[in-house]
Amino acid sequence: MNPFQSLRDCEEYVYSIQTQCPRVSGSPLVLARRSSSLAVLQGELRFSEGHRLVVREYLNADSNGVFIRRYSYEILRGQEKVTWFDSQPHPDAPDLASTHPHHRHIPPDIKHNRVPAPEISFASPNLERIVAEVDRLTHTHGAR
Predict the structure, then answer these.
(1) I need a surface site. Which of 43, 61, 70, 139 has the fewest CB within 10 A?
(2) What does the alpha-carbon distance between residue 5 and residue 113 come to, in Å, rounded to a whole number?
(3) Residue 143's pLDDT is what?
């Protein structure tokens, strides 16, 4: 079930993310409404260990709630891009078909090395899942 029934619900969540996730040390995320049913969420979350999460979501609201139309989530450690998730379709990649179009770019050759991303969805918020991934990466690789 989608917890966001309106863009206002989404705004309340976005602007309280820093209090919900204590490891977030800064959250210059902005949800900009483009119309009564369209909005763009962009900016970044900064983590106390030096990681950053760059967020871009294109949102659509209707009578069924708020849905993500497109997204990109980039996790960086310093200036190094560690991984990213996006919804750019790759119909010619049969190994991504199970979660089409949701996928993740991973090392080595991060631009071309893609794997399915079953944890990502258009129908529910992804930020908590991506923040959990930053936590996992932080514990795996240390704060550096």
Answers:
(1) 139
(2) 35
(3) 42
Report the distance separating Cα 118 and Cα 59, nearest Å.
20
Cα Rg for the chain, rounded, in angstroms? 15
Q: Where are the alpha helices (DSSP H) in the chain?
A: 7-14, 17-20, 127-141
**Tens-digit pLDDT profile for residues 51-106:** 999 999 999 999 989 999 999 999 999 899 999 999 999 999 999 999 999 999 99
Q: Which of 5, 21, 20 is nearest to 59 (CA)?
A: 5
Whole-angstrom distance, CA of residue 46 vs CA of residue 67:
25
For all residues of the chain together, what is the average pLDDT? 89
